[in-house]
């Protein structure tokens, strides 16, 4: 293999957008069958095979794809589904993403958790049995900067051996700071791999920089993240194309950073505060085809399905290659502890946030509407009912051996 | 575990084991099946990924399902370097999991192949700290010799890439280790069927570790019993000195040198 470039962008450029759409739409049954047989024989698929599995022709082979996806997933991951929940730290945002509830132009209540509130939220979430948490913020580094996120991680480490971040794009040095603070995974949705559409969807704000966001997972991997999770927001562009580039990006990351676990998410557009109404349809059947194609192309990568999807559908997706589910979710800042339960100490620590905290419960608006409102227990029960095991803990931090001895939880 | 009428015991560290089948705890749809699997298999050693154990939680689901009479073999799953493996091993010991440790150092998440150099370094470090070290490795003679020199108690070559269930794809290399390495050879990874385990034991492997093939089978306890039988059968065949198999050519009914007795010199 030739020496790999440090950036994914040159790889992306090898696939002109119009060519990708044309090639996917033109795939024949013969090409689908070739890809399927390759996967069934346990061999690796190439990009052309992946295109075939995303093509209209593959829609006739979903059941066969599903059986292979299930077999590959059980061999590599077992009958196990990892659980986590997001914790929104802040919804201050300087971007104008037209599809997002946190858009700086949206007249929603803005707030940000104090460190004491973060700890209280963590205790509340940990009481559900979860041991992995995903921290989210809007894009407002002057309010919720890397130091604040790092402080949050340090406060939460005693409760959670696994901490991920889904925040704005950072520099490698900033990712390294988070790693040193106990963060072990990062999630970054490119939203769309179509640069022209991306520019229209992100008219202003730091997120407008397509390239800086595109290379963020690579910077995170270089900084020491154990896992990088990527995805496109399905429904912004034609789904086949964005699903193709998601898989291609994950495959490139896996080859470039073999020591880092790669994972993909398949978020579909959900109702949100704002006015974006040009959503490209992604039917349930399409979502299933995406998951199956990703599984066959990336047999060693995790696949996450969030509470954007309704409960009944999430349950049926479990045997198709999914390895990770969120549970007990709120997409509002805080959201796990009622505002009145936060301590006076916390308010004294950050008086500027006082008024916001006390009214948060009434006024808080989520980034998007969730479709699966089940508790952690209910999701775990549903996983068991499907013959799978809910996994609450799947990593042990190594940066401080005292944590693993349980000293901080006793 | 140390007293038995069986005179064919597997000696590793301070243990004399009757069963030559090691089992795992990963990939089950429900950990509650582990006691039945353990009993059906007859295994005395069970490996557990420390990353999955909720240390400090006395009600941790997985550990509570492991029969008390089994020897825990914590593994360093998730370690990418020798240093990380050593840290995990120390955590396991501090958490009360004992001194046995299965070293897994994998820094390629695409193929999940073990890193021989880092594995040898971790083995050396941990053996000096008094661990009974069982390193998972590619069946490479030079790496195996490094592991012997580093203080390993056994070596655990893969039969095929982990999780593939493809059987003894590395058969020739494992055969060389059995011939050359003065430690128990425990075939780990890739064993998909009881017949694969039987084949490894017939070759002279000291034991087999089987997880995926049991955990994701249709009936884990029955499959565990089948593997137990296969390992015992293979071991018995090995001890009985399996008749040599003629490869490639049939035996000539008319000896090529028969003429020698007919010659009148």
Give a quick precis of the structure.
The complex is a heterodimer of chains A (410) and B (265). Chain A contains 18 helices and nine strands. Chain A is of the alpha/beta class and 410 residues long.
Task: Give helix % range of chain A.
Answer: 40-55%
The description of the largest β-sheet of chain B is: 5 strands, parallel
Structural class, from secondary structure content of chain A?
Answer: alpha/beta
Number of strands of chain A: 9
Q: Please give the largest β-sheet of chain A.
A: 8 strands, parallel, barrel
CATH topology of chain A: TIM Barrel
The CATH H-level homologous superfamily of chain A: Aldolase class I
Q: What overall form of chain B do the CA principal axes indicate?
A: globular
CATH class of chain A: Alpha Beta
Strand percent estimate of chain B = 5-15%
Low-confidence stretches of chain A: 343-362, 401-410
Radius of gyration of chain B: 20 Å
Low-confidence stretches of chain B: none
Tally of separate domains of chain A: 1
């Amino acid at each position: 293999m030739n020496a790999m470039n440090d950036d994914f962008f040159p790889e992306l450029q090898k696939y002109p957008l119009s060519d990708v759409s044309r090639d996917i739409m033109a795939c024949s049954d013969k090409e689908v069958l070739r890809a399927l047989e390759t996967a069934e024989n346990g061999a690796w698929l190439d990009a052309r095979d992946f295109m075939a599995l995303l093509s209209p022709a593959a829609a006739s082979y979903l059941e066969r794809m599903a059986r292979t996806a299930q077999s590959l997933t059980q061999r590599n991951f077992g009958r196990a589904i990892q659980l986590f929940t997001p914790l929104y730290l802040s919804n201050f945002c300087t971007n104008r993403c037209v599809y997002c509830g946190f858009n700086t132009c949206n007249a929603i209540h803005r707030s940000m958790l104090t460190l004491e509130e973060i700890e209280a939220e963590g205790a509340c979430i940990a009481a559900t049995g979860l041991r992995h948490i995903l921290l989210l913020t809007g894009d407002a580094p002057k309010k919720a900067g890397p130091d604040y996120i790092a402080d949050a991680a340090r406060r939460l480490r005693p409760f959670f051996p696994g901490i991920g971040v889904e925040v704005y794009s950072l520099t490698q040095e900033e990712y390294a700071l988070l790693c040193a603070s106990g963060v072990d995974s990062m999630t970054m949705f490119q939203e769309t791999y179509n640069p022209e559409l991306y520019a229209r969807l992100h008219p202003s704000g730091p997120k407008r920089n397509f390239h800086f966001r595109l290379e963020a997972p690579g910077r995170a991997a270089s900084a020491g993240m154990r896992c990088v999770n990527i995805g496109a927001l399905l429904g912004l562009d034609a789904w086949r194309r964005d699903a193709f580039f998601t898989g291609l990006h994950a495959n490139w990351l896996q080859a470039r950073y073999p020591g880092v676990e790669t994972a993909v998410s398949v978020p579909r557009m959900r109702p949100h505060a704002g006015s974006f109404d040009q959503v490209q349809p992604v039917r349930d059947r399409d979502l299933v085809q995406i998951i199956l194609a990703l599984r066959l192309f990336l047999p060693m990568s995790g696949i996450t399905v969030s509470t954007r999807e309704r409960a009944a559908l999430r349950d049926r997706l479990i045997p198709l290659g999914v390895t990770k589910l969120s549970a007990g979710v709120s997409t509002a800042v805080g959201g796990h502890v009622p505002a009145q339960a936060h301590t006076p100490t916390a308010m004294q620590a950050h008086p500027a946030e006082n008024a916001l905290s006390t009214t948060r419960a009434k006024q808080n608006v989520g980034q998007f509407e969730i479709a699966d409102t089940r508790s952690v227990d209910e999701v775990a029960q549903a996983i068991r009912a499907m013959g799978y095991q809910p996994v609450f803990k799947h990593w042990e931090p190594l940066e401080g051996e005292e944590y693993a001895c349980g000293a901080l939880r006793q | 575990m140390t007293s038995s009428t069986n005179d064919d015991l597997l000696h590793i560290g301070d243990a004399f084991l009757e069963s030559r089948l090691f089992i795992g705890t990963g990939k089950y749809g429900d950990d509650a099946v582990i006691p039945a699997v353990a009993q059906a298999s007859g295994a005395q050693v069970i490996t557990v990924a420390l990353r999955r154990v909720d240390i400090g939680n006395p009600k941790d689901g997985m550990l509570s399902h492991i029969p008390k009479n089994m020897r825990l073999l914590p593994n360093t799953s998730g370690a990418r370097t020798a240093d990380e493996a050593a840290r995990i091993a120390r955590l396991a010991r501090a958490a009360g999991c004992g001194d046995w440790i299965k070293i897994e150092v994998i820094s390629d998440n695409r193929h999940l192949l073990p890193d021989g150099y880092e594995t040898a370094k971790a083995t050396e470090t941990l053996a000096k700290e008094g661990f009974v070290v069982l390193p998972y490795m590619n069946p490479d003679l030079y790496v195996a010799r490094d592991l012997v020199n580093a203080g390993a108690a056994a070596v655990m070559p893969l039969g095929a890439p982990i999780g593939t269930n493809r059987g003894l794809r590395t058969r020739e290399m494992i055969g060389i280790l059995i011939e050359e390495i003065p430690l128990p050879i425990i075939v780990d990874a890739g064993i998909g069927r009881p017949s694969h385990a039987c084949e490894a034991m017939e070759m002279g492997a000291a034991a087999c570790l089987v997880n995926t093939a049991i955990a994701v089978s249709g009936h884990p306890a029955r499959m565990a019993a089948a593997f137990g039988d296969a390992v015992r059968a293979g071991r018995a065949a090995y001890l009985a000195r399996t008749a040599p198999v003629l490869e490639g050519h049939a035996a000539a009914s008319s000896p090529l040198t028969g003429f020698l007795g007919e010659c009148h010199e």
